[in-house]
Specification:
It is built from 8 helices and 11 strands. The protein is an alpha/beta fold. The radius of gyration is 19 Å and the shape is globular.
Length: 289
């Protein structure tokens, strides 16, 4: 079975983390499914070391406005060559509208928080929910065409975390020192806005644009006493699922198709997650839908 994960996300590393979370869910389920991600080139060094192929695809939205040109785009040609049995669409449905008319595969849309207008489209590109076999909501939001719902997708489970003290040992920080971590995987320049400027404690910045970024960073963060981070999907739900949410100082950065401040507030009232959404998703995939 071939599974294609398709995204048009190009802000931060979140779309890559979504693909990784799903891949890890399939791995935990003991699957040998062939998994490949397609999306805009990701300027993060860690992408070269992912346990699956992330195929960079140039996505210019203008050709997707017409059926004839959409079917000749690099995305259409790459999917035709890969011939997936299942396509997982990471929120961005518009580039696939006309491609899906000819692509023979099951089609599942992964939905999360975004503006209501996203699910209407424009006069030239209208959202067609009937194209999808499943519309799976992965955050505590309502969707007009929802068919299934799971908890947020997270890159790891608790039994996959690094051992206690691993991050401190790697950084040379003793157990009795306070360790402050600034974690960033968003837009270039935002990391500086997160920096607390502490002088009396060990403050370490991990930026996904840097070569030494330990992806997935979430596996290491239980060692930190205090964490400063943005309010992106992965950062917020990872902290809740993996047990360090109360130690994170979140900053909501503006996004066109996301609402980080909403997510920060939502997580404060969501006291627990019963499951990593990547695990039921993997079970559904292996069951053949």
């Amino acid at each position: 079975m071939r599974v294609a994960f398709v995204t048009a996300g190009d802000v931060g590393a979140g779309h890559v983390a979504h693909a990784y979370a799903i891949h890890q869910g399939l791995r935990r389920a003991g699957s040998r499914v062939e998994f490949r991600a397609f999306g805009p080139a990701a300027p993060f060094p860690f992408v070269a070391h992912l346990p699956f192929i992330y195929e960079p695809i140039a996505i210019d939205f203008r050709p997707f406005l017409e059926r004839e040109t959409a079917l000749q785009t690099p995305l259409a040609l790459a999917l035709a060559l890969y011939a997936p049995d299942l396509v997982l669409v990471d929120l961005f449905w518009a580039p696939l509208l006309y491609i899906f008319e000819t692509l023979q595969a099951s089609k599942w849309l992964l939905a999360r928080k975004c503006p209501d207008a996203w699910w209407k489209g424009t006069p030239r590109l209208r959202f067609e929910p009937r194209q999808y076999d499943r519309i799976i909501v992965t955050e505590p939001v309502e969707h007009p065409n929802e068919t299934h719902r799971i908890a947020p997708l997270v890159v790891a489970n608790r039994d996959e975390l690094e051992p206690v003290g691993a991050l401190r040992a790697a950084l040379g920080v003793s157990l009795d020192e306070q360790l402050v971590v600034v974690a960033h995987a968003g837009v270039v320049g935002e990391a500086e806005r997160l920096d607390p400027g502490y002088d009396q404690v060990r403050s370490v910045r991990f930026d996904a644009y840097e070569t030494q970024f330990p992806f997935p960073l979430a596996r290491w963060l239980n060692d930190a006493d205090v964490i400063f981070a943005g309010g992106g999907y992965n950062t917020v739900w990872e902290s809740l699922w993996l047990g360090y949410h109360d130690r994170v100082h979140f900053t909501g950065f503006p996004r066109n198709v996301d609402d980080q401040q909403w997510r920060i507030e939502c997580a404060r009232t969501t006291t627990t997650m019963k499951e990593n959404g990547a695990d039921p998703l993997a079970r559904w995939i292996l069951a053949g839908g």
